[in-house]
From TrEMBL:
Domain O-antigen ligase-related: 208-367
Natural source organism: Leptospira yanagawae serovar Saopaulo str. Sao Paulo = ATCC 700523
The keyword Protein transport is assigned to this record: no
Localization of this protein: Membrane
Name of the protein in question: O-antigen ligase
A single Gene Ontology CC term: membrane
Keywords for the protein's UniProt record, in alphabetical order: Ligase, Membrane, Transmembrane, Transmembrane helix
Main localization (coarse): membrane
Topological type in the membrane: Multi-pass membrane protein
Pfam families associated with the record: Wzy_C
Length: 442
């Protein structure tokens, strides 16, 4: 009974990541509580578990360091856990996945696939919705006198086209979720071709890939698009050099489909204002946030330089960046306006933000985590279907070059679910290898 409740809440938490972060965290809490009461708990011994433990241990060390530095003022601890440290709870998503029984592996796979479908279809619907779909969820627990509108791109014929954000609140968050699922749709289509599946199966995966591509293109989160391209490139590398199962025929078919999509995109670009407004920013044709990022980064560098080991401390970024920004304005008076108007909530780069807040050791650990993920994805013992589903983890670290997705709990919770899903299979392989070694000794 406890296991069934745990499994149900886990599935609800994963799927509701596409609906509402509040719902997903509520179901995550419930699933983790029931996980703690399971009769059989997994032994977590993989390198991913070890590096995550050290990663968050260092964060706690920096919190204690700054707590002592301010004279043991409890407000320092409270502020830390109101800001960056609050996301430490999301690691329970990684842990909770580990309790799934062997016979329920397909159940877990289907759960992640349903999550992907919800992202695609809500994103596609929101392309044509004048108001944000998130109100369908938020109105269940709070009332509002107004409906927020979506960004209007233009028209395709008589259709009004809007920037799609699904059921999320921002297009960047939704872009982060799209970057996780996009590689899966690419490689599931490839797999159906490679294994000569039925025409219906191939057609279904083709339509899904087309839909997610359109949603991703209209979403226009370039940091996420970069991450998705890195993930897909990594997956292609594995297919060519590790699995060695990409044929010339497959490359030809893929090239034809890609060419057809590009031709369709070019026609749309020339004939409709909506597509033109989507494509132009990708190549710098319209005002974007690129210059703003440079001012944010420039203001962040002094924080790193002055606090290289323990950082400025969790919860202190906005206060410290304000001081740094004012100093930059004095040094560069002709640029004062640009320093003043740029967003300062985070560093718009995961590596800069982590280094500024927790010091260089944290960023080194973050890169080790990335390397560990790459190592396990390169392991041929991990089933292809699992790799296809988790390739988005690779792109997450590329997207972080232009955006603070590690600070976005709506994206981070999915990161930990997928990382836990990968680790689940890593642990199974470790247990199998241990059993084989014991057998040989016996």
């Amino acid at each position: 009974m406890i296991y069934r409740l745990y499994r149900s809440f886990l599935a609800l938490s994963i799927i509701s990541c596409a609906l509402s972060v509040s719902l997903s965290q509520l179901f995550l809490l419930l699933s983790f509580v029931f996980f703690l009461f399971l009769d059989e708990k997994p032994k977590l011994t993989s390198n991913l578990v070890k590096i995550l433990f050290v990663f968050y241990l260092w964060q706690i060390v920096t919190v204690l360091y700054h707590f002592a530095a301010v004279g043991f003022d409890m407000n320092s601890i409270k502020q830390a856990f109101r800001d960056e440290m609050k996301d430490i709870f999301l690691v329970t998503a990684f842990v909770s996945v580990q309790g799934i029984k062997k016979e329920d592996k397909s159940y877990l796979y289907k759960t992640f696939f349903i999550f992907s479908l919800v992202i695609v279809f809500t994103g596609f619907i929101s392309i044509f919705s004048m108001t944000r779909l998130s109100r369908l969820i938020s109105d269940l627990y709070k009332s509002s006198s107004s409906w927020p509108y979506q960004h209007h791109y233009g028209n395709i014929g008589t259709l009004n086209i809007y920037l799609p954000i699904g059921l999320m609140n921002t297009h960047l968050t939704f872009g982060g979720l799209l970057a996780f699922i996009f590689p899966g749709f690419v490689f599931r289509l490839y797999d159906s071709w490679y294994n000569k599946s039925s025409k219906l199966n191939i057609a279904t995966h083709s339509v899904l890939l087309l839909l997610v591509s359109l949603v991703f293109l209209f979403n226009n989160a370039r940091s996420s698009l970069l991450g998705a391209m890195v993930s897909v490139s990594f997956g292609i590398y594995i297919l060519i050099f590790i699995d060695k199962d990409i044929s010339k025929k497959m490359i030809k078919r893929t090239s034809i489909i890609l060419l057809g999509f590009l031709i369709l995109l070019f026609v749309g670009y020339k004939s409709t204002s909506a597509v033109k407004r989507v494509v132009d920013p990708l190549f710098g044709g319209e005002k974007h946030t690129d210059s703003g990022r440079t001012f944010i980064w420039d203001s962040t560098f002094p924080l790193i330089q002055n606090n290289p080991i323990f950082g400025i401390g969790s919860g202190n970024y906005q206060k410290e960046i304000e001081i740094s920004r004012k100093n930059k304005e004095k040094e560069n008076r002709e640029l004062a306006f640009f320093y003043e108007v740029t967003q300062r909530g985070h560093a718009h780069n995961d590596y800069f933000h982590l280094t500024a807040v927790f010091g260089f050791p944290q960023t080194v650990l973050y890169l080790i985590l990335f390397a560990t993920i790459l190592y396990h994805l390169l392991d041929s013992q991990i089933p292809k279907s699992i790799r296809f589903m988790t390739y988005g983890l690779v792109g997450f670290f590329a997207s972080g070059l232009l955006q603070c997705y590690f600070q976005d709990d709506e994206v981070l919770i999915v990161f930990y679910f997928l990382l836990g899903y990968l680790n689940y299979h890593v642990e199974k392989n470790l247990n199998l290898e241990t059993s084989q070694e014991i057998g040989k000794v016996g």
